[in-house]
Amino acid sequence: MAMEKITNAYFNKLDWHDAIIDKITIDRSCPGVIDIIDIHIIWKDETKNTLHFENVYWADLNMNFGVVAAESILKAISKGRDCIPVIECYNKWKGNIDNINLNYYEIETNSTGSTIRIIAEWLSIT
Known about the structure:
- 12% of the residues lie in helices and 51% in strands.
- The protein has one domain (4-125).
- The protein has a six-stranded antiparallel barrel with strand order 2-3-4-7-6-5.
- The chain has helices spanning 8-13, 84-92; strands at 4-5, 20-30, 34-42, 48-62, 71-79, 103-109, 115-125.
- The mean pLDDT is 93.
- With 126 residues, it is mainly β.
- It is built from two helices and seven strands.
- A hairpin with a 5-residue loop joins β3 (34-42) and β4.
């Protein structure tokens, strides 16, 4: 299946509540060139997709473990370059990445009260 880049508006309209995070993978096999986070989702209708975050500049996977339950999602949001976390990321880079259009993604879970935050150049879905 081909990857389709998605907008923040598309991301925000997805039916996140009670979707399941099946797997998360991080690929830094060539740091600075390949910085990818994949999140495998099982939607409520049992369809599956992979969210493919590319050119990741920052991630915080504040995750809790030990709960014997599927990792269901409470809610998820995406914002553009004008939100505070992205502005702070630009500030850390001191102007070196100002020409890159970064986005902020946040996924909160029901099962473990975890929060996944990612700042990346783009997101595609397969």
